[in-house]
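Example record used in the benchmark description.
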Amino acid sequence: MKNLFLTLFVLFSLSPVFGQTKNVDLDNVRLSITTRSTPAEPLDPLFFHYSSKVTATSSTKQRVDIEDVNHSIYIAGEKKVKNPMAGDVLIHVDLGNLVIASSNIVERKEESKQKDGTVNVSYYYKVEVNYKFDSNFKIIRDDKILAQETVYSSYSSQYYTSQEYGSRKGAADFWNNNRDILISDFTRDLSMRTASRASSVASYRYGFPVTKSYDIIKTIDEKKHNENEAFRGAAQALKEELSSMTGETGMNKDRINGLIEYFESIPKKYTDPKLKADVRLRYAAYYNLCKIYLYLDEPEKIIPYADLILSNGHDKKDEERMKKAADSLKVVLDRTSIKTRHFDPNEYFKNDTQEGIQVIQKEEVQTKEDESDE
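Model output (structure tokens):
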């Protein structure tokens, strides 16, 4: 990285003030971003112990390993205790019965015309199953229900369709021979989905889940312009810094400072208010600076560069997008006393002496895609 900054500095120093072309092409650099979300409805204290409990009907217990369901329940960034009565928060998942509402064999007719004009007719058969399930969860604290949801209801149907068979008997034999196995599979799948939904809601409202999203930065693609190599190198270095972030670690500020200095130098070098090449270079630099401060979690520093995007004149709508992103980030950071989206929740439990603690290793990674800049 140091060699890259040295290269950029040398290229910047040796480049003439004006490029060799009146215009430059801009490209989007697409990248994956990893951050840690803060709770939508933070509890006091922010970091707490929780437990989970799963109840089920006797028929569901015969088909599903209840301990597996219980083990899969989590609140991202918080600590789980073994004793259901020992946590500050309890997630209670309740699983009802799976009922087969109907099972039918469906026929499909297929005709194919031959060269001699004859028509061949084939018949195919598959099993269609309509089944229903009941499940819900509650999130409880101090005997107060914080949240609850019916995940599956007997008033709505689930459907299963088998592969096709060449005879009605083949389809019927498949269902009759595999009915019990399939019902167990249906029950297990919906039970685990219920636990996943409970975990997702609890993590979103009260936890610190790791979130993966997609974003873009700007680069140029104009070999005739003297800034091409340096700008593309800086954009690639920025992509590497942004892509290297995790839920625990953000960008390295010492390394990113060199990129900030480079992008800030572009508007000072290319000052013509009408030359398209200069206008686009300034825009790309302002754009990338906005994204740097967005992921340094410094929303107040985004605004000046967003204003410069507007006054610069190219892609003025990005000014509004950047300010909205800054406002949204400020809301997120203002929810709690933690002013970063990159930290290790385990640091807040270092002095934990409570017995029976299980750290939930699995975190649901929520994926979202911001297409507003495309």
